[in-house]
Amino acid sequence: MPKPLLSVQLYSVRRQLEADLPDSIAKLAALGFTAVEPYNFAAIAEPLAAALSANGLTAPSGHAPLLSADQDEIFTAAEALGIGTVIDPFIPEERWQSLADVERTAQALNAAAAKAAGYGITVGYHNHWWELESILDGSTALEQLAAHLDDPVILEVDTYWAAVSGQDPAALLRRLGDRVKFVHLKDGPLSTEPLDQLPAGEGRVDIPAILAAAPQLTAGVVEFDDYRGDIFEGLAKSLGYLNGLAGQAVGAQA
Fold it and tell me: Lower CB density within 10 Å: C or N end of the chain?
């Protein structure tokens, strides 16, 4: 199966970052990550840039509230951090219940993408479960969104939340096609309780099928919304599992 670049969503270690940002970034690099996905990065751009540089890490993507914050500030910070794709990670559930609302969201993302192009940056959107539970005119609200997006706007599919919604994540990725450039890779029992999440390979998500369904990915992003154990141990287990999948694929081809 194809192996994308493996990144890590820094929201996974938000508490640790608040306590000691340089140490937390160094720990992620020591685990073997070479890339990160920052969140709300405009507020911490300077110390984060220093920590990434010190540890040889890149940030190909980042999360920011594009549709509710100062876009120029966000894109300026993204430039400073080398973030090529800025992804809005959250639009509330109530705004996915009608085609008119979905079309308004698409128009707002298209406008953000037009502004981002002036900075050499791409814009995207990241889902939760509600965009896929909502069915509008015969398809999921997320797919309705995709149909109204301009070509430059990408999607980052959170494959765990897709599975929680009742969708088959691999089938969803095939339907969405090349618009999907990033995926969130996490696992668990398919509940909406973040603390139930598990290291990749220990839950009910068919991660090999997901990776096989999206050979065009720029990166697969490891994430825990929350975790009952030591978060760095959980991330290490996820990274080890995903690297193991790549090794199996190489062995199968030999």
Answer: C
